[in-house]
Amino acid sequence: MATTYEKIATTTLGSAAATIDFTSIAGTYTDLRIVASLKGAGTGYTDSVSRIAFNSDLGGTTYSYTWLRGDGSSASSGRSTNSPYCRGYQSGSQAGNQPSFYIADIFSYAGSTNKTVLVEASADLNGSGYVYRMVNLWRNTAAITSISLSSPNGDNLVAGSTATLYGILKA
Amino acid sequence: MPATYTLISSNVLTSSAASVTFSAIPATYTDLVVRAAARSDFANTIELMEITINGNTSSLYSMTGVYGEGSSAISDRDSGTSLNFDPIDAANNTANTFGNYELYIPSYLASQNKPVGTFAVYEQNGASNNRVQANAGLFRSTAAITSLEFAPRYGTNFVSGSSFYLYGISNA
Questions:
Q1: Which residues of B are less than 8 Å from A133 in CB distance?
Q2: Under an 8 A CB cutoff, do B117 and A7 touch?
Q3: Cα-Cα end-to-end distance for chain B
Q4: Chain A residues lying within 8 Å of B69, measured CB to CB
């Protein structure tokens, strides 16, 4: 039986870096999954976007997303159109020693359709924090061959930030 | 290549049980996943899954959730001596129906506090007593996770037919 859930690559930063990159992703799977625990070096974040960029497409207008958020007192939803990146999540300095994580499922990444990404972010901080569910769309029909994870505003990801890319196979 | 997503243990109840425990969890994976279909004997229309990690009942747990019950969405937060935010079916709900639940714990061996994510749903084909809920949780302990205990928060037992599956995910 073929293995259906395989690690492709994993990175844990030994020192601060601008990005975590997965490159030369083979088209041999059906879906991709990222499990990431990231923390930005910037200060003052209370609810922090992180960037997911496919095939070096960062800064344009080809992404959009819609999110559902709970902050412990109210639920809210919002969206962004013509966005420069796919939205993930990262902790900021306010998180202290309370790590957060997100899971991003990228469906049919090697197909010739636009790419849908489901993000589940969990960031409880013992009295503050958030839970997110987000749907992202990358309006590009190319197969995804590289993924870059980064902070907004040019901040580094701190040492210890970690991300693993898995391939999920239906065949 | 080693298997990445592996069943560690399962427990499908053939009679009611006060709790289900996965103990002696091996330290050979990176992340843990629990998938369950559960119902309690609590005489109500909602029960909450109570999770105790490593047998630790100190006030080290906190939770932030968002959920919908068919109309508006709500967010809430709590803290306490267990994770206890995830809804499952209770005794007054549609018979033979079990709430579905998934728990994800990344880096369960790391010497850091442990974030968790959960997703839970139950549905009754009615105007009320249905819920879809996502939670973020935190267990403020740097110890490796070696056991997970599941119990109904309010009821006495999980009913027969409730099922629990523990998987290990390896990035090695």
A1: 66, 134
A2: no
A3: 9
A4: none
Confidence (pTM): 0.94
CB atoms A70 and B66 under 8 Å: yes
- Taking only the tens place, the pLDDT of each residue in B63-118 is 999 999 988 899 999 999 999 999 999 999 999 999 999 999 999 999 999 999 99
Best A71, A131, A169 member to test B by mutation, with max B CBs in 10 Å, is A131
Q: The complex's ipTM?
A: 0.91
Q: Say if the Cβ atoms of A164 and B77 lie within 8 Å.
A: no
Contacting residues of A for B117, CB less than 8 Å apart? 101, 103, 120-122, 131
Per residue in A129-170, pLDDT tens? 999 999 999 999 999 999 999 998 778 999 999 999 999 997
